[in-house]
Amino acid sequence: MPDHGHSHQEVAARISAPPGTGVLRDAVLGAIDGSVTTFAIVAGVAGAGLPPFVIVVLGLANVLADGFSMAAAAYSGSRAEKDNFRRIRKIEERHIKDYPLGEWREARAILAQKGLSGRVLDEATDAITKNHDRWIALMMEGEYGLGGISPHPLRAAVTTFLSFLVAGMVPLLPFILSLDSAFTLSAWMTMASFFTIGALKSIWSLSPWWRSACETLVIGGAAAAIAYGVGSLFNF
Question: How far apart are CA 67 and CA 226, in angstroms?
Answer without folding.
Answer: 21
